[in-house]
C-alpha cells in the first residue's frame, strides 16, 4: 500500500504537485494558510486539516512546499510543528528552496526525534508542476531517496540524488543563478531587438533554434512579447534565491560576478514595488535602464 502523505504549503507549486499525488492514488492530508487552497485540495479528493499537527499525525511521508527558510523552521520546530507531532520513522521531504544550512540543521534536529529528512527542491516552474515533469534535486541518505522515489516519479521527470543533506539545495541555488542570468540575457536581447526595429516574434523563434535557445526563452517568450508578468515565479522568491546562492558561493570562495549584478537588478525590481511580478519582469529593469 502507498504511504499516507501530509502536504504542508499549497501555493502555486504545492497545489498542482499534491494533486498529482492524488491522481497517482496517494491519500493526501494538507495544511496551508489560505482557505481557498484547502477547499481546492478537498475538491481534488484530498483531506483539509485544521493544523500542521493534525495533518502530520498519521502521515508516513510529510512534504513541505513553503516560501523560504523562516517558514520551514516555523512549521518544523515548536510545539505545534512537524517534529513534535510526526510519527516515529516518518520521512520529511522538504521541497521548498531554502538555504543548504537550514536543510542540514533540520536533518540533525529531526534525527533526534526519529524523523528522517530529504531536501528535494525542484525546478520546472508552475507548468512543470502541473505536467509532473519537474527536475527534483535531492540531498540526504540513499535509503530514504529510494523510499521517496515512487512519490517523486508522480511529480517529476528528472530525479537525482545529488549527495548528503543540503546538496539538493546547493544544486537548486546553482539552478536559480543560471535561470536569473539567462532571463537577464534574454531581456537585454529583447530590448536591443525592439529598439533595432526587428520583428521580435521572428527573432525569438530563430534564436530559439540555435545555441541561444533555452527553456527560459521557450517558456518566457510570451511573457516578454505581451509584457505579461503574472506569476509564475515571483521576483520576491528569486530575490530570496539570489541571496541563498550569493551566501553559499561566498562560503566556498566561488566568484559570481555576473550573478551579483543580476541579483542587484532583481533587488531593484523589488524596491520599485514589482516583487509580486513574474521573474520575466527583469525585462522592466532593462527597459528602465534603456529609457524605454
Ligand atoms: P507560494 O507563495 O505560491 O506558496 C507558498 C505556500 O506556503 C502558501 O500556500 C502558504 O500558505 C504556505 N505557507 C507559508 N507559511 C506557512 C505556514 N506557516 N504553514 C502552512 N503553510 C504555509 O510559493 P510557490 O511559488 O508555490 O513556491 C514554494 C517554494 O517552491 C518556494 O521555496 C519557491 O522558491 C519554490 N519554487 C517555486 C517555483 C515556481 O515557479 N513558483 C518553482 C520552483 C521552486
From TrEMBL:
- Positions of the 6-phosphogluconate dehydrogenase NADP-binding domain: 4-163
The UniProt entry, under Pfam families, shows: NAD_binding_11, NAD_binding_2
Catalytic site positions: 172
3-hydroxyisobutyrate dehydrogenase-like NAD-binding domain location: 166-285
User: What are the boundaries of the signal sequence?
Assistant: none
Q: Which UniProt keywords apply?
A: NAD, Oxidoreductase
The molecular function GO annotations come to: 2-hydroxy-3-oxopropionate reductase activity; NAD binding; NADP binding
| Any GO BP | glyoxylate metabolic process
- Which family would the database say this protein is a member of? Belongs to the HIBADH-related family.
Query: What NCBIfam families has UniProt attached to this entry?
Result: tartro_sem_red (TIGR01505)
**Record-given protein name:** 2-hydroxy-3-oxopropionate reductase
Q: Which organism is it from?
A: Streptomyces solincola
Amino acid at each position: 500500500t502507498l504511504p499516507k502523505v501530509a502536504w504542508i504549503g499549497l501555493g502555486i507549486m504545492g497545489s498542482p504537485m499534491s494533486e498529482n499525488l492524488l491522481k497517482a492514488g496517494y491519500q493526501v492530508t494538507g495544511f496551508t494558510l489560505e482557505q481557498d487552497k484547502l477547499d481546492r485540495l478537498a475538491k481534488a479528493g484530498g483531506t483539509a486539516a485544521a493544523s500542521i499537527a493534525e495533518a502530520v499525525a498519521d502521515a508516513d511521508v510529510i512534504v513541505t512546499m513553503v516560501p523560504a527558510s523562516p517558514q520551514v523552521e516555523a512549521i518544523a520546530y515548536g510545539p505545534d510543528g512537524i517534529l513534535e507531532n510526526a510519527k516515529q520513522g516518518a520521512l520529511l521531504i522538504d521541497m521548498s528552496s531554502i538555504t543548504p544550512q537550514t536543510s542540514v540543521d533540520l536533518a540533525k534536529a529531526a534525527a533526534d526525534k526519529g524523523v528522517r529528512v530529504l531536501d528535494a527542491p525542484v525546478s520546472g516552474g508552475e507548468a512543470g508542476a502541473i505536467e509532473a515533469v519537474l527536475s527534483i534535486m535531492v540531498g540526504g541518505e540513499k535509503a530514504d531517496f529510494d523510499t521517496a522515489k515512487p512519490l517523486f516519479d508522480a511529480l517529476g521527470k528528472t530525479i537525482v540524488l545529488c549527495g548528503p543533506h543540503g546538496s539538493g539545495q546547493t544544486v537548486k541555488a546553482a539552478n536559480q543563478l543560471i535561470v536569473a542570468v539567462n532571463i537577464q540575457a534574454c531581456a537585454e536581447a529583447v530590448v536591443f531587438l525592439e529598439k533595432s526595429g526587428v520583428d521580435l516574434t521572428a527573432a525569438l523563434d530563430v534564436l530559439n533554434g540555435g545555441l541561444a535557445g533555452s527553456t527560459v526563452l521557450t517558456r518566457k517568450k510570451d511573457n516578454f512579447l505581451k509584457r505579461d508578468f503574472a506569476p509564475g515565479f515571483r521576483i520576491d522568491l528569486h530575490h530570496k534565491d539570489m541571496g541563498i546562492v550569493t551566501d553559499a558561493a561566498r562560503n566556498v570562495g566561488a566568484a559570481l560576478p555576473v550573478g551579483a549584478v543580476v541579483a542587484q537588478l532583481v533587488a531593484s525590481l523589488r524596491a520599485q514595488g514589482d516583487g509580486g511580478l513574474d521573474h520575466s519582469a527583469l525585462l522592466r529593469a532593462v527597459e528602465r535602464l534603456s529609457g524605454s
